[in-house]
Design a protein that fits this description.
With 507 residues, this protein is α/β, with parallel strands linked by helices. The protein has 17 helices and 17 strands. The chain has 2 domains: 5-208, 2-Layer Sandwich (Beta-Lactamase); 219-449, 3-Layer(aba) Sandwich (Rossmann fold), CATH 3.40.50.300. The protein has helices spanning 42-58, 69-90, 96-111, 116-120, 156-168, 217-222, 228-239, 254-261, 306-313, 329-340, 354-362, 403-408, 437-445, 449-468, 474-486, 488-496, 502-505; strands at 5-15, 18-27, 30-36, 125-130, 138-141, 145-149, 180-184, 190-194, 204-208, 244-248, 270-275, 287-292, 320-325, 344-350, 378-385, 390-401, 413-420. The protein starts with a strand and ends with a helix.
Length: 507
């Protein structure tokens, strides 16, 4: 008996100039993500197979031509032109949809990762997982969570070919002797591969997609991840070069939060970022130099670690240092030393609360002394509610000296939670007044509490104005922030009088 299909959602994705339909439907106990590809009859398929070899030989490819998106796009353009000419001659009556998908599929096979390219083109997907050739590819959909798809890998050797292609394009290799690969695609998506028998079911690949249209402060306010009130505090702290740690669990949104905060930095400040894989996407007006680590080659040579880059950044005269996750003691020591020497530092850490952040930092493997925590001015904790599929700022806090420890002469720090998330009504009320944050601002900027309150109110109004006027693209938000630092009075006037965005966004 055939299970009745119930369509949950249907939409198109555009890839290679061709629209492909995506259908999310329930079939019995399963919800399936389907890529709808035009049906090709046996006779047409046989004719297309004959043409395939001619098309493949029509485009010459060198390995180093596949290192950039621009080079690949040029090859694709040449290939499409040759394909159109040949198909028009050989199969003049071929259905247009079949022709387009045939050319696209062949391009995927030659220059990409076959059907996986369709998944990479869907902006609604966050993760793509191949477990083995014996089960369908699975994806993580922003709206529907984990779904199995209607695409099956052709074979284990095909999955290994995908892994080899990914590795080869960044000058690496994955073999039975070296069966683990952590790399990135030309599109900047992060890929991890493990070969059999280490992965006992079969060869496996996991791809985490790089955001084509990254989040901004506007998105975070609209989806209630954070309020404009909290963002105003973070903006003020960043503007006056205070140090911040963003904590949270896996996939809680730590890097995304860090990314949306960076446009708050002044445009004339030199920013250096250190990441395992490029995830940050900052507006073009910022003075930014992104650095990424490198794994050693199979002979164990050529590694460039977080620590190597961190030490090197201190010789590059940075105003701001952004670092991916702090994992080791030596990294933390150099990072905190950078804070003490006047650099403004932002980093991420795996910890679920402000209290856990202190525990993680002051115990192995990070294990820095409590006395170094006075350099941290703000700790933002991200939280992911998997049941409801939402991300929220769980706590906004600071590290305050423990009064009892001061008496004993061995200083220790404890969290002072300024704002905390209430799950029951999904709100973020103030829990405690800041202890150190405003004191530090008063001492280093000359602002008194009245001035600070005025600045926070104005910043909140600007952020609310961004939301009201749907200013959400990275470059748009960046332009508003740039104008704020170039002509603060002008931005305040626009916001106070609720003028249109044209006043700010037009050159």
């Amino acid at each position: 008996m055939t299970t009745k299909e119930k369509v949950i959602e249907k939409y198109d994705i555009e890839y290679g100039g061709i629209k492909t339909q995506i259908k999310v439907s329930s079939e019995g106990q399963d919800v399936v993500y389907k890529i709808i590809i035009p049906h090709i009859d046996v006779a047409t398929a046989a004719l297309l197979d004959d043409i395939k070899d001619k098309l493949i030989s029509s485009v010459e490819m060198e390995g180093d031509e596949l290192q950039t998106e621009e080079a690949i796009e040029t090859l694709k353009k040449n290939f499409k032109e040759n394909a159109d000419t040949l198909l028009s001659e050989e199969l003049p009556n071929l259905d247009k949809d079949i022709k387009n998908h045939f050319v696209l599929s062949l391009l995927n096979e030659l220059l990409g990762l076959d059907e996986i390219e369709f998944f990479l083109s869907d902006p609604e997907l966050e993760e793509i997982v191949i477990n083995s050739a014996s089960e369908p590819i699975r994806i993580y959909h922003k709206k529907h969570g984990w779904l199995k798809t209607n695409i099956m890998p052709k074979s284990e050797s095909k999955i290994q070919n995908y892994a080899n292609t990914i590795a080869r394009r960044i000058g690496r290799e994955i073999t039975t002797l070296n069966p683990l690969l952590d790399a990135h695609l030309v599109s900047k998506d992060r890929a991890n591969a493990i070969l059999s028998p280490i992965s006992s079911k079969g060869n496996t690949i996991t791809i985490r997609k790089f955001a084509r249209d990254p989040w901004t402060v506007t998105d975070f306010i609209k989806n209630k991840t954070v309020t404009s009130e909290l963002l105003a505090i973070m903006w003020l702290a960043i503007q006056y070069e205070m140090n911040m740690i963003v904590s949270g669990g896996t996939a809680s949104g730590k890097t995304s939060l860090l990314n949306i905060l960076m446009p708050f930095i002044q445009p004339n400040h030199r920013i250096l970022s250190i990441e395992d894989t490029r995830e940050l996407q900052l507006p073009s007006f910022l003075y930014w130099c992104p650095l990424v680590t490198r794994e050693p080659n199979p002979e164990g040579k050529g590694e460039v670690s977080m620590l190597d880059l961190l030490i090197n950044t201190l010789r590059m005269r940075p105003d701001r240092i952004i670092m991916g996750e702090v994992r080791k003691q030596r990294e933390a020591e150099v990072l905190f030393e950078a804070m003490h020497t006047g650099h403004s530092v932002y980093c991420t850490l795996h910890a679920d609360t402000c209290n856990q952040t202190i525990t993680r930092l002051t115990n192995p493997p990070v294990n820095i002394p409590h006395s170094m925590l006075d350099s941290v001015h703000l700790n933002v904790v991200m939280f992911r509610d998997r049941r409801r599929g939402i991300r929220r700022i769980f706590e906004l806090g600071e590290f305050a000296p423990d009064e009892e420890s001061l008496k004993s002469g061995q200083i220790k720090y404890k969290p002072n939670i300024i704002y905390g998330w209430k799950a029951k009504d999904d709100t973020m009320p103030m829990v405690n007044e800041p202890i150190r944050l405003f004191e530090e601002l008063e001492r280093h900027t000359g602002l008194d509490k009245k001035d600070i309150k005025k600045e926070l109110d104005m910043k909140k109004d600007i952020l609310d104005w961004l939301v009201k006027n749907e200013i959400r693209q990275v470059e748009q938000v960046g332009k508003v922030m740039n104008r704020y630092y170039m002509d603060k009075d002008m931005i305040e006037d626009v916001v106070t009088k609720n003028k249109t965005p044209k006043t700010v966004l037009e050159d």
